[in-house]
Structure formats: C-alpha cells, structure tokens
Amino acid sequence: QVQLVESGGGLVQPGGSLTLSCEASGFDHNIGVVSWYRQAPGEAREWVAVISGISAGANTLYTDSVKGRFTISRDAARKKVYLQMRNLKPEDTAIYYCRTVLHNIVYWGQGTQVTVSS
User: Fold this and answer.
1) Helix (H, G, I), strand (E, B) or coil at 21
2) Please, which residues bridge with residue 62 across strands?
C-alpha cells in the first residue's frame, strides 16, 4: 500500500524548534518532488516548501513567511523528507501535510499537528 506518513509534530513555545518527517512506504522507487503544506484552523491549506528529486538536484523553494526559518531536506536512502522548523511563531500553528505525485496520482499524508504557544 502506497502511503506517506508524517511525524514529529507537537507543542512548542514561540522561538522553539521542531523537525517533521515524511516517510514514504509502498513506493517501488524513490519518491520525486515532495511538498509540505499546512492548514491552520479555519484557513485554507497553504503550500510551505518543496524539494525536487535527487536527480534534479534536490532544489528547494519556500513560501515567504518561512524563508530563513524552515529547511526542507531529504534522505533518499530512507525515502524520507524532513522539514526543520526554527524560530517558530504562533502563526505557524497548523496541521502539516506532505504531498507527492507518482504516475499522476497525488498522495497526501494524514498530517501532523504543530502547535506554537506559550
């Protein structure tokens, strides 16, 4: 069964850090482009960051609000993509999802909750 599973969310104080993981299973080869999205309560889901495949140089892009604070990376051998989040702010509170596309099928994880609060 092909699936993405996120982990690493939790409660953190403003200024703190968390690292989220997205693990792919059931894929018969390495996953390609992987994106992180987030959805705050009452808000639409928004794109956060993307990393291209290893063959494309693992290039990264970020939405403006997280530039300089979040870092997306990948471990090809473990079929994992990470989102390292630093200097977290209350407005980063959301459910975080990873997403990939394989053979024109979109796969989403179930999400992991990140809460930034004192």
Assistant:
1) strand
2) 49
